Amino acid sequence: MTQEPTSLRSIWARTPRTRRPKSRRHQLPISSDAMEEAHGHRPSSTAGRPFLSGLCAAALRRKPLGAHGSAAAAATGEGLVRQLGVLELVLLGIGASIGAGIFVVTGTVARDAGPGVTISFVLAGAACVLNALCYAELASRFPAVVGGAYLYTYAAFNEITAFLVFTQLMVDYHIGAASIARSLASYFIQFLELIPFLKGQIPSWIGHGEEFFGGVISINILAPILLIILTAILCRGVKESSAVNTFMTTLKIIIVIVVVFAGVFEVDVSNWSPFMPNGFKSVVTGATVVFFAYVGFDAVANSAEEAKRPQRDLPIGILGSLLACVLLYVAVCLVITGMVPYTLLGEDAPLAEAFAAKGLKFITVLISIGAVAGLTTTLLVGLYVQSRLYLGLGRDGLLPSVFAKVHPTRHTPLQSQIWVGCVAAVMAGLFNVSMLSHILSVGTLTGYSVVSACVVTLRWNDKGTSRRSLGSMSIWQEGVLCLVIVALCGFIVGICYRFNYAIAFMVVAFVIAVAASFALQFRQVYVDPPGFSCPGVPLLPIISVFFNMVLFAQLHEEAWYRFVILSLIALGVYAGYGQYNAVPSSSENSTIGYHGIPTEAP
């Protein structure tokens, strides 16, 4: 068992009796009752205080990772089990990514970006590499507890921010699962129609979708059936679901490589001209659309409680899967846009249609098999991640306790898994994918930005600095303010670029962001974490936050409305339920206990 170094204890596990009164990081303007709540001494009821003050005190709580969560469950034999090795983790990340980007989004984005869709995938991949380095550090630092971005935010910032990140991420996962299920159903029907006597005989409402009310409602019967089957596999156990993912991911990687080599001989370089027919702006906008195709690496972070050697294997799984995905995406985009003019690419099955246009029927059959395998693993991993996030919030009391239950023999969060399967099935069976795609990527960009900021804040060493704070603001609060300024400036730069505002506004916003970055660099003292260390802190995470917010500004307006409306709804849910039921810690002397982790090899 590996024990976390005691240097992290000062971040989460200080009690009021041992905390030094001069620590700047904790000079927050909250009451002593709130500080008690932040360390697990929360009163059983907040009825004795005004609603707003109680809400603020609860919202500012942070999570000290103790022995009550995964450790207590593991001790009773009812927790998750560690069965995933490094290969399974890498394939888990690839399985979550390869499928949606290649077989679904490519054709849609190429209609606007042209062959420049390749650059869209490169830009999104570059942003994700920055984010993946941040995820890798935090996954290595906190390898014992499920939760991913939600967990990191809860530990680094506060309870309300963590809950908001969860809600934004979860809507992205639900929408993504529904859209991928419909695409999987469409590919499955297309595969069946390769049989001569079935061609044209299958009604559209079975797999392709039949629209009503102007396309808002689109009935699809096969998509919910596929979701039910995958949910049943996940409910049987992580060993069984991992075996399915490993087999299908390996199959689709082989198929993608074969397709790329076959397509190279059919490329007409004239199809790449013009490379960006609608300008670079459409390429940047396309990058925000394909951004969710890389979300597989954060699925690896959510498997922390089921990895055999998490402190070593999680960073390898995160970075290895992402780099493999970037290479495969770029290769496929170049091939399909070179084979067929981008204006002729289909939206539902662009890869198969590109080879069909060249008369390569046998490759079309192979692509259909790869598409079915690819979308299956993407959907399988997406459902897996959702259930683990619900499990984390159920354990912390921010959601009903039914989500915290783990089956005693299957060792899976059965209720959470069934819930996410049902939600995805309803959405996939009733709603139009094109309508849902306009509001994707909001949660992903939000989560990635906050995780990058978490790396910076958790590296701060308040006791190591002798610098004075600004007025009544602590050094910790000053650093958080600088991070917010960087994020806002990134958003402003993105807005100015999108709407062609005067370049002077972009320059001013960029200069302010640089000034805030200098303050973060020279006003704070940083310490190296145990395990994997993200290079270039704080510069690299700052660039990550800035770039994520530039991409955020390129989203459709409906996505912005969704962000605001969903945040308000989440605040209402937290105010009415979460603040009264959350349990950030369970004991007076709770520490960061990495229970159940096997000893790492030197």
TrEMBL record:
<dbReference type="GO" id="GO:0006865">
    <property type="term" value="P:amino acid transport"/>
</dbReference>
<feature type="transmembrane region" description="Helical">
    <location>
        <begin position="559"/>
        <end position="577"/>
    </location>
</feature>
<comment type="similarity">
    <text>Belongs to the amino acid-polyamine-organocation (APC) superfamily. Cationic amino acid transporter (CAT) (TC 2.A.3.3) family.</text>
</comment>
<dbReference type="GO" id="GO:0016020">
    <property type="term" value="C:membrane"/>
</dbReference>
<keyword id="KW-0472">Membrane</keyword>
<feature type="domain" description="Cationic amino acid transporter C-terminal">
    <location>
        <begin position="532"/>
        <end position="581"/>
    </location>
</feature>
<feature type="transmembrane region" description="Helical">
    <location>
        <begin position="362"/>
        <end position="385"/>
    </location>
</feature>
<feature type="transmembrane region" description="Helical">
    <location>
        <begin position="285"/>
        <end position="304"/>
    </location>
</feature>
<protein>
    <recommendedName>
        <fullName>Cationic amino acid transporter C-terminal domain-containing protein</fullName>
    </recommendedName>
</protein>
<feature type="transmembrane region" description="Helical">
    <location>
        <begin position="418"/>
        <end position="439"/>
    </location>
</feature>
<dbReference type="Pfam" id="PF13520">
    <property type="entry name" value="AA_permease_2"/>
</dbReference>
<feature type="transmembrane region" description="Helical">
    <location>
        <begin position="247"/>
        <end position="265"/>
    </location>
</feature>
<feature type="transmembrane region" description="Helical">
    <location>
        <begin position="501"/>
        <end position="520"/>
    </location>
</feature>
<keyword id="KW-0812">Transmembrane</keyword>
<feature type="region of interest" description="Disordered">
    <location>
        <begin position="1"/>
        <end position="48"/>
    </location>
</feature>
<keyword id="KW-1133">Transmembrane helix</keyword>
<dbReference type="InterPro" id="IPR002293">
    <property type="entry name" value="AA/rel_permease1"/>
</dbReference>
<feature type="transmembrane region" description="Helical">
    <location>
        <begin position="316"/>
        <end position="342"/>
    </location>
</feature>
<feature type="transmembrane region" description="Helical">
    <location>
        <begin position="89"/>
        <end position="110"/>
    </location>
</feature>
<dbReference type="Pfam" id="PF13906">
    <property type="entry name" value="AA_permease_C"/>
</dbReference>
<feature type="transmembrane region" description="Helical">
    <location>
        <begin position="473"/>
        <end position="495"/>
    </location>
</feature>
<feature type="transmembrane region" description="Helical">
    <location>
        <begin position="212"/>
        <end position="235"/>
    </location>
</feature>
<feature type="transmembrane region" description="Helical">
    <location>
        <begin position="144"/>
        <end position="166"/>
    </location>
</feature>
<feature type="transmembrane region" description="Helical">
    <location>
        <begin position="117"/>
        <end position="138"/>
    </location>
</feature>
<dbReference type="GO" id="GO:0015171">
    <property type="term" value="F:amino acid transmembrane transporter activity"/>
</dbReference>
<feature type="compositionally biased region" description="Basic residues">
    <location>
        <begin position="16"/>
        <end position="27"/>
    </location>
</feature>
<feature type="transmembrane region" description="Helical">
    <location>
        <begin position="532"/>
        <end position="553"/>
    </location>
</feature>
<dbReference type="InterPro" id="IPR029485">
    <property type="entry name" value="CAT_C"/>
</dbReference>
